[in-house]
Amino acid sequence: MSRSPLSRSVEIISETRYVQAESPRWDARDGGLAWIDMATGSLHRGRIEQGMVVPGASVVVGAQIGAPVPLARPADGWLVAVDRGVVHVSDEGLVAPVTGDFAAPGHYLNDGGADPHGRFWVGSQSMPRAPHCGLWSIDADGIPTQRLDGVTVSNGLAFDRSGTTLFYIDTLPHRSIEAFDVAPDGALTNRRTVARVDGGNPDGMAIDLEGMLWVAVWDAGEVRRYSPSGALLETIELPATRPTAVALVDRLLVITTASIGLAEPGEADGALLGVEVEVGGAPASAWAGAAR
Fold first, then answer.
1. Which residues bind substrate (predicted)?
2. Which of 115, 203, 208, 269 is catalytic?
């Protein structure tokens, strides 16, 4: 396993500890940060100032919150996967449905993100774990289209800058990063394995400006950087056991973590962490639909 050739300083950047923080998003509209606490069904927003997250507004959206993506225009709020469908959350905290339930009964939506063409992609999981979940895209008209079936635990996804390649993690059973070609209409073809992830469960993922993939590895206490061909370039050890997801806020790698299921959480478990890296990232792509 490749360890970091550099001396990385991993900092706790939030005063608050969350049960299961997930899905950090850098908002191009105002430079802010959004993230969720999956265990409490809440969407949080804030800013990074002097190396720390300054919390802003938060709203409880639903019992099983998945992932948020910004809308394109300032003050237009967020599209959020919750329970079995997708809602719009205004900047004032008002929640309105965008879709009906499209995930199957007993399933719930998990991680997701927008592609460069303005589609919101989100996948599902269920308890107990079984390969009968899916991955969907939601166009600007709010209509979901199923893109994959046979999914077990849909987790991280990231698109290259052209939107023609999707990198995707279905955590179980193979613990792999996969890639697909993406057609202009969103159809997925040419499925292939990029890398097997050992020592933990691959979870959230982000792509940097060089096209490299940062992956949070749950239960390994690590984030890892992979090339698009699957080479492990760097491993950063964390003071938290369960990193859940990552986002690049320029050159600050923001890492959400969870304390859920840990008998004796440590100081960093459930915190947001930050690591300065050499190659930055772009803000989160926005959903192309209109505010409700």
1. 110
2. 203
